[in-house]
Description:
InterPro entries: 7TMR_DISM_rcpt_extracell_dom1, Bact_2-comp_sensor_kinase, HATPase_C_sf, HATPase_dom, Sig_transdc_His_kin_internal. One of its GO terms (molecular function) is phosphorelay sensor kinase activity. It holds the Pfam family 7TMR-DISM_7TM. The chain crosses the membrane at residues 189-210, 217-234, 249-273, 285-306, 318-336, 343-363. This protein is α+β, with helices and mostly antiparallel strands. It is 57% helix and 16% strand. The chain contains 20 helices and 18 strands. The protein has helices spanning 3-27, 44-52, 78-83, 170-176, 182-212, 215-231, 236-239, 247-272, 275-278, 280-306, 311-338, 343-364, 367-413, 417-432, 436-455, 464-481, 509-520, 552-558, 567-579, 585-588; strands at residues 29-31, 34-38, 57-58, 70-76, 89-93, 99-106, 109-116, 124-125, 132-137, 146-151, 165-168, 461-463, 487-491, 502-504, 529-536, 540-547, 589-593, 598-605. It is rod-shaped, with a radius of gyration of 43 Å.
Amino acid sequence: MKELPLSIFFIFLLNFQLSAQERSPTYRVLVFPTVFKMDSAISINQAMDYSNQGLFQTTENLGIAKQGYHYWFKIDLAEAISKNNIQDSIYFYPYGVEKGNLFIVRNSRLTPLVFNIMGENDLKRTNLESPFYISISKNELINGSKLYLVTHYLRATPDLSNKTFSISSPEAHQLFSGYISHNSFKSQVLAFFFLGVAAVLMVFNLILFFNMKERQYIYYGLFLLFQLIYYSRISPLLAVNFGYGHYHFFFWLTSISQILINTFYMLFIRHFLDFPKYLPKFDRIVKGIVILLASLIVLVSVLIYHDPYNAFQANLMNWQRYFMATFAFVGVAYLWKVYQGKLVYFVIAGTLIFTTGALLTMFLLDLDYMITGSAIESTIFALGLSYKIKVISQEKREAESEAFQTRLGALRAQINPHFIFNSLSSIQHLISSEQKVPALKYLAKFSKFVRQVLENSLDVHVSLEKEIELLKVYLDLESLRFEHAFTYEVILPEDSNICYEEVPMLIIQPFVENAIKHGLLAKKSEDKKLTIRFFDKGDYILCEVEDNGIGREAAEKMKGTNYRPSRGMGLTYERLQLETKWSTKEDLIVFEDLEQGTKVTIKIPKQ
């Protein structure tokens, strides 16, 4: 059942396309005019005299239209009206005429109808691919079958060879006004396909911009938006969303959209490849071109406002296209040569495809090439943006890892200096009191402890076996220092490979030091024992440091005004927090008051 709606859609699409192919030819009847070209203005009566003299010729080899010339077209409809049995009136479609006059007979006089797609005129419009038309009664035709049309080409200079106009009957116009030609159908499908791609990418870039606050995403979104505005010319159904009903405004919008496409593309590439950082000299050139394009937008806007048919404005647009195409190819070659990094390949591929499509459109006058190039280019840059996000994320992780390792090293290096000073003081005391054997024994263990710490100074993590070995040396030093005032025991689970797991170095030492200093040494009885247990808990190692000292409450009461809190405990918590996903201290370290003494439970993440 899920396939049924999709099948219906494709059947409808196929029928629509077939209708476009089969019915379009009967919708409009092509008529081939004759033409007379003048470099100055003449009246309709003069034009008719020239026609009677046989000076009007076929358009077969007329060639490219020239600016400054007046083209008079004589359109004889007698054969077309007869073959298609048109009775009362016709619909005339002056395709390719921007500004001119169509002469008919009205009230027994030759009357000009004004053609001016940029302003007030007698043309009417539909949502067809060639939307301009005019309805003419048969009795308004000159000599019963002829029309005279005069136009001069101010902006566009199309190829007038084999120039045609078209007519249709009112019935055909009404019946087939919703149909389009096969070529136009393909173009509109392509335009709406690009609309879908552009809409998805614009939303994607907008989300990225608000999340990452990087201007490259908003620039690319605007690049897509103005592409969409420019391509909307293909379909009135799409163009109506951008002011198509006001053609002067729509012409201005689509004109500056061409410049804005290049502007935002340049800004996007500038930030995408980070020119200010990697290519500062080239970046200054890019910024200069962006300023030039912004100035061109202002100039073109002023020219269109005063005269939308301004030939200088049309030439400016062509110069801009040639310049940007040249810069695109030169820039691609330069980036290929000097830019380091894989991101440049996305820019090179996207730019070459987009520029090639634009040039094909410019020379072949078919917007399909540019839309196709834009769709491929958009796909390439979507992949490029995804790749850059991946690279940025990877670089961020590496930077965080380096900072993490640096921070761990700094925290690990902050061994309580009092331990070193006290150890040296103990050695000094033993030597001064001539206790040579204990002094040598103490010095040997102290040097072993320092040597092991220094040997592992470049390693943030060590195996649990080494950590326990280092911890035992430390406990032996403390035991010697306090004349064997306490005993200790380290317990590991049997039949476990826990000893090979890596843990942060000296992660247990601050808890052991705290238990000795505040729990055991303050106890008056001789039974002073420290027990250290390790358990394998899958993702982490659970360590218990248990003493049978005086307990936390009694230790708190014994603290004097000269009490200095242990920095080691706080630093160890920081180290554990950096190593693990647990966010609170209670998740990492748990203190438990026992009947005799205290038990501290520490969760140590496995590496």
